[in-house]
Amino acid sequence: MARGRQASLRPPYVERVRGREGELAVLAGMLDRPQGRFAVLCAAGGMGKTTVAARLAAQAEAAGRQVFWVRWRDGAELAQQMVQVALACGLPEAELEAARAGQASLPDVVWRQLGRVRKWLLVVDNADEPQEIGPAGEPVADYRGWIRPGGRGLLVVTSRDGSQQTWGPCARLLPLEPLPVRPAGEVLLDAAPAAGTAEQARELAARLGGLPLALHAAGAYLAGPTSRYRTFAAYRDALEVEPGFLWGAAHPNASRPQFARAVVRHTWEVSLDQLAGEGNALARPVLRLLALLAQAPVPLSLITPDLLSVVTGHDVTAVALDAAFAGLHRYGLLGLPHSPGSISPASGSGEEAQVVLHPLIREINAVALTAETSDLAVWHQALAERLTTAVHEAEQRGRAGWPAAVLLAPHLPLLLDCADPRTAPHHRTTLNDLAQVLQEAGAFGAARLLHERVLDVETRMLGPEHPDTLTSRNDLGNALFGMGEPAEAIRLLRQILEDRTRILGPVHPDTLTSRNDLACALDGTGEHAEALGLLRQTLNDRSRVLGPEHPHTLASRDSLGLALDGMGEHAQAVRMHRRTLADRIRVLGPEHPLTLLSRHNLAGALTRAGEQMEAEQLLRRALNDHARILGDEHPHTLASRDSLGLALDGMGEHAQAVRLLRQNLEDRTRILSPEHPDTLASRHNLALALTRAGEQAEAMDLLRRTLDDRARVLGVEHPHTLSTRNALETAPAMSTPRTQSRWGNWRRRRNAAAGSS
């Protein structure tokens, strides 16, 4: 009788599993030594939990272990199957009868028997409703029911519920992620080997987001003899025009849970139905709303109770919204970024809470929302208004709003998809406002993407020579330079200056901004002579048109001081910077970012003028102020640290200078990229300090690398490339530091408060 009952406990057959070697290795180790723990394979529907458990079962059977597979459907059936397991393990009928007579707890009897025998594997599959497992009214984590860490074998549970609180302290959670591209492509090739090449399989696998259920569904479809699409490439193209059909949106058996789990579209509806059954009816509209946003991390601050109230038509509380997010996360329908603290080069000290959606979950929920909502305009309008408000909130928070601004950036272009011409100017302004915040934060890459989208829309809607379009082109040029793409930036800024001069006139404030920005870019790349002429003209014109104390006029004077310093006119540069610093303290305040900039630039000029003591004091103050006001990793702070290192080197404090410059090189490499011009400048400056510290071998190696990189990034005849080549040739005799941080100085001059149009 026990053998007959055990036949229903057989695991499903799985020939091979791709990309889950790590999880299987952990499970194999627990199989040998459970150590009082059990395993929970947890993830959203479609991630392959059952497949991994079935493969482990095959390995356990091959090793001579008893394997039992229990399929969760309801409490009564679970109890029946667990009794079958105990009987197969030798449970005496007398003990079972005693439990049935109420003389003992049935789960206690079963688990007592499992503690008497060794070398077994028990899988409880699809335990997606742990609260129903029992005993009634008690959480699973109390370990008084069918899920326990006891016994002398290994219990493995598969579930969509990935909460440690649900499963208790003895559970080893093994969350499954989407498959990497290579093993995901192999899954497709296993299923449909004649459908194309390995590269084509990987391309389709990437489009499917590495989701195992979607991969198996696609493979089965492609292998079908009557399928319309027979190749990986054809299937990938078809996804763009009829995703609902290929994902099973109209599957005839989708209303039956056992079928819904095997259909890509409906597997997640099962989880949403379960959440609704728990009283969490808000989970579905929250997921639908998130699906309207871009495929990027979403700041939780963006999704508010008021926003959900508008789209659902019901009052929504903060408690209910928090519960919806918690439920979606517990069921694996939304995740957390792998590195939530690394959201921005200059994100400040705050860390913005954020969530992410799997690409397929996002895409299919967007399709579902379209199918079930009669008026999507309500959702889009509500989301547009919330995005606009979120930008204003980030602006008002200053530095504290930078992390949210970086997270908002990928979602803002959605505003431009609105076809209503009445709201288009307002939405473009919102994108430009956020881009301005991002530039203040030093997040030039995110700002560039927004400028590109605005420019594309304005060029189509307003024309290439409209003043707003020219402003967007100018903003894009500055963002390109900030990202470390000087040639393209200067080319664009030259063209904009010509166009603005022709269309607006030579002394229009926008034209003066373009001339100033081009001059700053030229000076930042070592073209000091041309920059000097442009800046003298711009300073005269701005003084006459805007006034001598206008912030833009002060910005031109500051930039002219830097150009003079670059030309070797250090004494004149010091005088100009002293005057600008005094005026900015009076006009803008002592802690305004532009005032900090002037203090830094004055210190740099003093260093090159030989006034090392005063320069060091100013640089230490500038570094402390930048770190306190802008954050330790803001580009301005890094520039101040680099300048202080150079000043210390010039004062003979070579060891201290090397430590400071080495740290700055590491930070710039991590934050800006290894080949950003500022990073190359830091490497050059560290090499000079190492030379004077007697570390010739490391210095020569750094200079050779910097020369190769500068020649490739900036050009073989660029002034900075020539400077590194000269340093490499004369390194043994070098004794006077020369700053190579003008790129950072350009970015600092381009602070939005004084240089934007």
From TrEMBL:
UniProt cross-references to Gene3D superfamilies, sorted A to Z: P-loop containing nucleotide triphosphate hydrolases (3.40.50.300), Tetratricopeptide repeat domain (1.25.40.10)
Top-rank lineage group of the source organism: Bacteria
SUPFAM superfamilies in the record: P-loop containing nucleoside triphosphate hydrolases (SSF52540), TPR-like (SSF48452)
UniProt xrefs under InterPro entries: AAA_22, NLR-like, P-loop_NTPase, TPR-like_helical_dom_sf
Pfam family, one: TPR_10
Domain ORC1/DEAH AAA+ ATPase, chain residue ranges per copy: 36-129
A GO MF term: ATP hydrolysis activity
Transmembrane segment boundaries: none
Protein name: ORC1/DEAH AAA+ ATPase domain-containing protein
